[in-house]
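Friendly challenge for the regulars: who can give me the structure tokens for this chain first? No prize, just bragging rights.
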Amino acid sequence: MTSARFLSTFLLTVLMVAGISVSCQTFTNTIRWPEHKVADKQFWAFTAGLGITSFADVRSSFENRALGYKVNPIMRPFMNAGTIPAYAMVGGIDGGLTAFSYEAKKRHWKFWRLPIAVGIGAHSFAFGVNINLSRQQ
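First reply, four minutes later:
Bragging rights claimed.
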């Protein structure tokens, strides 16, 4: 994969997750105004971390598939279909986690970070497995 395509795929992933977050905030603000800013710096930091780890996970999965390693059975159909379906599936799941965390933070739930943190942990774990597999080559 060329560096231009790599950069465009990375930007697409980050923009997709950020766009879902912004549209969620815009939609809920039209219903009622929150008394505080829900999407603050901490929320955006968690969302950016989720986007970065998602990108690293899917990218490393494609590289391992090129080396001949088996892919996660859940991701296999999307990986075989190409980059766009794989990133769309992961972006959709991450967008759902972000939207749920946004709603939880808006309602002042104590554990609003948990869904995004679980997503970051899962993508980081998968990325680590993929890196270890590629090093064994």
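The longest helix spans residues 3-31. Residues 3-136 form one domain. Your move, everyone else.
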